[in-house]
Amino acid sequence: MTKKLNLINKLTFSLLIIGMTELPVQAVDCFPENNLSFPISQNKNITGPQKYQIDEVIETFKSKMQPIVTKRLNKELKIELDWENPKVNASATRDDDNNPIISLYGGMTRHTELTKDGLLGILCHEIGHHLGGAPKKKRGNSNKRSWSSAEGQADYFAGTKCLPLFFNNPLETINLDVLSNKKEVDFAESHCGNNPICTRTALTGLSMARVFASLKNYHQMPSIELNDHTEVWETTYSHPKPQCRLDTVLSGALCSVPPSQPFDPLDPNIGSCYRNGDEALEVAGERPRCWFSPSNN
To answer: To 5 degrees, how large is the angle CA 202–CA 208–CA 212?
Structure first.
């Protein structure tokens, strides 16, 4: 009888340990599942960033973000580029020691709509899953929060906290025409009040949104001259529509809260621009309502 009780106790303890163990960390894909691909053999003469340029962007990004990751997470930032893979995607995950990992597929970096700044925006989005704070995704069908910030919040992080860190050199923002056509540059400059950092961030968001839009047959391509006027009743944690994602990056660029003030893991208002008091009064730089609901997140 004693042996049976001991065996039951051991089994019970083992089950408790299993129950306490966190499930394996799932990767968070930047793009919705898609069949689009850009193999190396088909893209030898494209005008987009080449391998050495991509490596430079990755190194620049890592050198700037590693100190921030160290300060806020006390972890090592790892970036993995699978150059041979033709898949159009990127993802964020963590290793067994909770170090943040960003995985890039070669097909995504070779996408003809992706500029060097657009690649930087994708990287900022991915690290935004780790540093973007609330609202965070839910675990499966439960109300428990994941480690990862929502897709829209990762875009908002890119526009508010990340891209401005790389675009603060005036000498690099003089000739913005090389990033897009003159009409788009002029509209972005007007919308941003001729702020070169905001303008460059807006054009980066445009490159990102065009890549997102290429994955499905949208009747209208995203444009910095348009807005997604949809208002959700509940915060969207999955991928918003491309126009909404562009609006989010642009809104982030207009937010007056300094990039040095981090987002909070629980309170979405901390570190962000938001309506304080009069709900009917829109605030420059707030999260677009096409994915964010302040009353239901």
So the answer is: 135
